[in-house]
Write a structure and sequence with these properties.
With about 80 residues, this protein is α+β, with helices and mostly antiparallel strands. It has two helices and three strands, in the order H-E-E-E-H.
């Protein structure tokens, strides 16, 4: 199956790289989500039904007039807020 150490090393590096990308994407979304609070004005973010994309990503916006903050979330970071708990 594996013919040399370099193939194994290449596979391990590739898998580690992909895992790092997934971790970074989730971390950056979690930071942007900010536990459902707008980092600019402190208001609670609101889920807009029309801001749900075809792959399940959800758009949360700040309801305060003049604040244009939006957080797009595709991982289950906002699971409790979506369920209403």
């Amino acid at each position: 199956m594996w013919e040399s150490i370099s193939e194994i090393t290449f596979a391990v590096i590739g898998i580690s790289f992909i895992g790092g990308l997934v971790f970074f994407a989730r971390y950056s979304e979690k930071k942007k989500w900010n536990k459902g609070v707008c980092p600019d004005c402190g208001s609670t973010l609101v889920l807009n039904g029309w801001m749900i994309d075809s792959q399940g990503g959800r758009g949360w916006t700040c309801p305060k007039s003049g604040c244009d903050y939006t957080a797009w979330v595709s991982y289950n970071i906002d699971k409790k807020a979506v369920q209403g708990n």
